[in-house]
Amino acid sequence: MARLLIKGDDLVVRPAWWEKVATGHRQIRVPLSAVARVEEASAWWRPLRGRPRRTSYLPGMSHLGVWRHEDGQDFIAVHPWKPVVVVETYGKAPFARIAVSVRDAQAAKDLVPHHGR
Questions:
Q1: Does the residue 78 lie in any domain?
Q2: Is residue 69 part of a domain?
Q3: What's 16-67 look like in SS3?
Q4: Residue of 26, 44, 32, 42 whose CA lies nearest to 100
Q5: From what superkingdom does this record's organism come (predicted)?
């Protein structure tokens, strides 16, 4: 599962090695100033929106990749029945939303010191 880290003024999302292979993204960096909200999804499938652009889907195991929609694109690395953290962004962020399964959703949410506009 992915890890969320703070490096300087950036939120860094580091997918697990198999997520990197499936999505083509080694890491994603988002300026903390571009983080609008960080929350835990009420269900693993709720953050999925739009249409898959470059994805890998293993039924019952994972949804990995980039999903396009009218507001831009989202990075998705979610696994059914695992906690999912959703990072909503604005401004100069590479993705409108980043949704990743994590081991501890509360710890991941607490990591970002000031989320919210």
A1: yes
A2: yes
A3: CHHHHHHHCCCCEEEEHHHEEEEEECCCCCCCCCCEEEEEEEECCCEEEEEE
A4: 44
A5: Bacteria
Mean pLDDT of the chain: 86
Predicted local distance difference test score (pLDDT) of residue 13: 92
The sign one gets for the Cα dihedral 26, 70, 105, 19 is negative
* DSSP state letters, 59-98: TTTEEEEEEEETTEEEEEEE-TTS-EEEEEE-SS-S-SEE
Q: Which domain holds residue 38?
A: 3-111
Q: What are the structure tokens assigned to 12, written together?
A: 């860094």
The domain tally of the chain equals 1
Mean pLDDT for the stretch of residues 67-79: 91
d(CA 63, CA 2): 13
What pLDDT is recorded for position 91? 84
